[in-house]
Amino acid sequence: MSDIAGGGDPSAITSVTAESPKTTGFDANQIAEVKAWLTSQFDAVGKDVPDFEYTPRSIGELHKIATLSQAKTQAAVIVANDHRQKAAEYRSQAARLREILESVGLAQESLPSNVVSSAHVLAKVSNLLDIRDTELSSFLVAVSDLSLRKTAVEEKRGKVQQESKVLLEYTRKAIARLTYLKRTLSQLEDDVAPCEAQMENWKTNLAIMESKERQYLKEYGYYKAMLNRVGYTPEVSHGVLVEMAEHKKDLEKKTKPILDTLRSYQDLPPDKALAALAIEDKKRQYAAAEKYLEDVLQSALASSE
Length: 305
Fold this sequence. Notes:
- The protein is mostly helical.
- Helix content is 82%, strand content 0%.
- It is elongated.
- The relative contact order is 0.03.
């Protein structure tokens, strides 16, 4: 590995780190482990370690990677050794079985082709069912387990299909709702122009109505001031005047016969005594009629109050 570290000598950095590790933050043991690991990794592929700057962060990260790599490498070596041992055991067992089969005349070369193919099929079935013997019970147990797994898969598939149907129905409803909302939005967009025109018309009418309202309020104030000047009071209302007019008509109907009688007296010969009596009688009737009219007017005014 190259000894260049950020343009300087890493040994000098190591010596400084060994003297004052708290100041620089470098760890000499970590640097040595990282150098050894990088050298081993790049030497394995026939390449030199590239130059890089030694910093506490880079050394820390590389040390973590080196530790993890070494642990995984050790685990891989253990697994590989285990597989090699199992492969050797399987080869020795295969050789022993081959010797036994050859001793009883059942070597693969001496067997018919259909037997060999059946044996291969049996081996494939055994591998598929994950069984290590040719016992019928093992085969039945494996087939039963496979059937159970198939049933479980079918049940899960049924549930997934049911959920898919439900989701499909929800999707269909959502699409229908979206189509309805789009159609409604299109209708609303089409109605925007007429509604805006109607609103403008309403604004114009509102301005006219406000102008009329101000005019009517002004006229109302003018007429109210005029009524105050002429002495109008709420007691002299239209209803009271109508009622008084009706009473006047009744009195005219009642006094009309008297007036007709008085006019008929004008055609009689002059008789001073009788005329005086008749005049006095008519005066009393007329006074009674006036008193009645006054009483009616007073009662009408009192009821309106």
